Known about the structure:
The protein is mostly helical.
Amino acid sequence: MRKPRDFDAELKALDDKAKELKTRKVRQLGELVIATGADTLTVNELAGALIVLAETKEAGRREAWARRGGAFFQGRAQRTAPASNRDARGAPPQSVGAQPPSGGKGTA
């Protein structure tokens, strides 16, 4: 005979894993806010900016934001990698954060 499955234990393990993943996601989002310097914004400013981002359907604008985000992460990786492992594309890592925001103030 087969051993009966303990569904309660399996459900509890899945619930614990889901809670752990949610906690890790929240922590990573907080780390991202700090790493980008967005922690200097007020809660209302940050929430408003995120709402505009989520509501934007313009593919070109979203692609530009994605490229900029990718450049941010590449710059962080380059700053933490040893010199021999750096990507030789020529852009200095500190220039990534120095770009002005696309669209300027007050545009959505």
